[in-house]
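Let us practice reading a record.
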Amino acid sequence: MTSGFPEVWDTRAFGRALDTAFNGIVATWGEPLEQIFLPLLRAINGLEKLLQLSPWWAVVTAFCIVTWAAARQWRPVAMVAAMLVALGLLGVWDAAMASVALMLVATLLSVMLGIPLGILMSRSDRMRSGMLPILDIMQTMPIFVYLIPFVMLFGPGKIPALLATIVFAIPPVIRLTDLGIRQVDPEVVEASRAFGASRHQQLWTVQVPLAMPTIMAGINQTTMMALSMVVIASMIGAGGLGYQVLQGIQRLEVSRGLIAGLGIVLLAIIFDRIAQSYGRRVQANLHRESE
């Protein structure tokens, strides 16, 4: 039985041509791209081994130091320490550290790429109009679609999982960096210009600091979206807590999936508390300076 809609163009021929073209790209560029991304793979594996081989109390202490630097309050520090200990008590410490390593690298790269792109979008309406549809597609396209070309290029493993995570997680930090800079009071920017500040000085001494709470909200969302990828990434060999959930599905073991899921929730709360605490502290400092 055929569809009632008339066939305007041959989608099967287009699909075959597209597959053939991409197979050619894989044959030509697959190995060079693997060499290019090899340092990233080593960084992820190195960070994973460092977190897993370090004493648990050293990892907890490091997280507490980072939380204190972000919040300057003891309550978030105590909460983060308690949740990290809970990860160990659940028996998912090594898997959690593997997920943390992949997520941290993906988040760091997303922020390093996303903030400059957001700044460029805020300074060019033409670029913004071109980027917004691309960001919409990146956020709405099913993530499994991203996995196909990455797995074809690199094979199963951490690199395709990393790249798919970046594509999925980077839009919030780009959008909110652009939004935060555009929302800075034009009178403040004009005042800095009147005092002789260049465009570069206006950006880094006025606009970016005032937009920092919004930018931090974007970083927080990017972190959460990167963490939400751990289950999907496990399907192509990324390991970590997502692999425990996948095993629970394959073996119909409710306990394994539930414990790994709780571990993912604890990691999400940990990173959310760190990012939100830093954002609130930056906002409080800005209010004090404005007064």
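A brief commentary: The mean pLDDT is 85.
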